[in-house]
Automatic annotation (TrEMBL):
It catalyses: 5,6-dihydrouracil + NAD(+) = uracil + NADH + H(+); 5,6-dihydrothymine + NAD(+) = thymine + NADH + H(+). This is dihydrouracil dehydrogenase (NAD(+)). SUPFAM superfamilies: alpha-helical ferredoxin, Nucleotide-binding domain. Gene3D superfamilies: Alpha-helical ferredoxin (1.10.1060.10), FAD/NAD(P)-binding domain (3.50.50.60). It comes from the Bacteria.
Length: 496
């Protein structure tokens, strides 16, 4: 990738404009079948036993405390070690019904595996994510759902959004005997699991297979192509259902704030990944020769690696702060570099260089520095050639569908209490759309679980019914070690 450094004020780029080289079919036709092969192939039964042998089965295990959903990790690993992967899967899924996807996409290197005592002592943690995938895959392959529904309650709950938070809440509510209708804006469920995760992390249509597995519980119906604020309203849902759970995610994308970012070759990374995930023929995807990705999170890493795999010559991620400030983990950053992606730090976008037809052919960045805790520009500039630019600087919540509902916001997202209750009686929210969220699949699953327990307690006026929940609904509980009770098992009903 050609570049030219400027000192002092930014001048015009000396890079030749030329025509952008954006096209499909950059790879030989035969390569597309394996371009997004599984990043972490599953463990064999023998490998799973060997790996489970490495676990110390700690009491008050740090790994369990680091798991946002509170999975009893030592227990499920012991169950694998004892030759009971189905029991291990039940232990996992009792706390995290999307445990199969989370085993694939969770940043375990910054969660459970980071605090594993073997990581602390030896720098080589137990492969918790791999073992979790092994157990859940084994159970899903049987076609048997591990849980049974409680008796019908006659209550009906509306869930907005079929992403991780919505699916988690719906399943937990259905297990309690409630009927659930999910309203999903897209033609498929799964949320970011279906549309936003890198293709090499979740292969063979896993998001849809997992969704089908979840729906086996019964009592859940999904209405697709139903957008809040257009096809449905908060007021109508509140009037027509016993409770409402909002989990619509973050539909918007932050802008660069630069002239020319509406150019056809300046794209939202989230949208591009969604198109890639839904493409029937990968060779038709338009890929640039010289690509610049602006951002420092997982979306930036995912789009960079995928475009590199699809044949881009040069892919550069540009981030305004240092490496340690990137939201993407050190492991993910290294993964990008292994795939040939260049990561540049301490640069912020200054101007999009355009040709006469409005096409961007280069970007000028200003060097930045941290001075007295503030990010400032240094007055020095760098211009990078780019025929395709991806914005990956975060997603935004759209409050318009909530206008007039009375639902309070905080920091641009829905304000909720510890149980997921909003400021409006009968309405809960969770996942990426709520204030203070961690924007992780596993955190969204926990939000949905907590809200579902709170909704159930509020509707039944029986907070004690929540306790011992996992043991009561586990299919064949007498034949398997019981799952650890949720850390949120004592969620109390609302005072309304």
């Amino acid at each position: 990738m050609r570049s030219m450094k400027h000192t002092g004020s930014a001048g015009s780029s000396s890079i030749d404009a030329g025509s952008p080289d954006i096209r499909g079919a950059r790879l030989p036709a035969g390569d597309y079948a394996h371009v997004f092969d599984d990043l972490h192939p599953p463990l064999s039964p023998h490998e799973a036993i060997v790996e489970s042998d490495r676990c110390y089965f700690c009491y008050d295990a740090p790994c369990m405390n680091a798991c946002p959903t509170g999975i009893d990790i030592p227990l499920f690993i012991r169950q694998i070690n004892a030759g009971n992967p189905a029991g291990a899967a039940r232990t996992i899924l009792a706390e995290n019904i999307l445990g199969g996807m989370c085993a694939r996409v969770c940043p375990t290197e910054t969660l459970c595996e980071e605090v594993c005592v073997r990581e602390v002592a030896e720098g080589k943690p137990v492969k918790i994510g791999h073992l979790q995938r092994y157990a859940t895959d084994m159970l899903m392959a049987t076609g048997n759902h591990p849980f049974t529904r409680a008796a019908e309650t006659g209550r009906h709950i509306a869930v907005v959004g079929a992403g991780p938070a919505g699916i988690s809440a719906a399943h937990r509510l259905a297990m309690h005997g409630h009927q659930v209708t999910i309203f999903e804006a897209r033609p498929k469920g799964g949320g970011l699991n279906e549309y936003g995760i890198a293709a090499y992390k979740t292969v063979n249509n896993f998001a849809q297979r997992e969704l089908d597995f979840v729906l086996q519980i019964g009592g859940i119906h999904i209405e697709y192509n139903q957008t809040l604020g257009q096809d449905i309203t908060v007021e109508a849902l509140k009037a027509g259902y016993d409770a409402v759970f909002l989990a619509m995610g973050l539909p918007g994308v932050n802008d660069l704030g630069l002239a020319g970012e509406d150019a056809p070759n300046v794209l939202d990374a989230v949208d591009y990944i969604a198109n890639l995930r839904q493409a029937r023929n990968l060779s038709t995807l338009p890929v640039g020769r010289d690509i610049v990705v602006i951002g420092g999170g997982m979306t930036a890493i995912d789009v960079a690696i995928q475009t590199k795999k699809l044949g881009a010559n040069n892919v550069t991620i540009v981030y305004r702060r240092g490496q340690e400030s990137m939201n993407a983990s050190a492991y993910e950053q290294e993964l990008a570099q292994i795939h040939g992606v260049v990561i540049r730090h301490w640069l912020q976008p200054h101007a999009l260089e355009r040709s006469e037809d409005g096409i961007v052919h280069a970007i000028t960045f200003e060097y930045t520095a941290n001075r007295d805790g503030k990010l400032v520009g240094t007055g020095e500039y760098l211009t990078l050639e780019a025929d395709q630019v991806f914005k990956a600087i975060g997603q935004t919540f759209d409050p318009e569908p909530l206008r007039g509902s009375g639902i309070a916001l905080a920091k641009g997202r829905i304000s909720v209490d510890a149980e997921g209750r909003t400021s409006v009686e009968g309405i809960w929210a969770g996942g990426d759309c709520v204030a203070g969220g961690k924007d992780l699949t596993v955190a969204s699953v926990e939000d949905g679980k907590v809200a579902a327990l709170s909704i159930h307690a509020a509707l039944t006026s029986r907070p004690e019914a929540v306790e011992g929940f996992a043991e009561a609904v586990l299919s064949g509980a007498a034949h398997h070690a019981p799952a650890a009770p949720s850390r949120h098992a004592t969620v109390q009903p609302g005072s309304e």
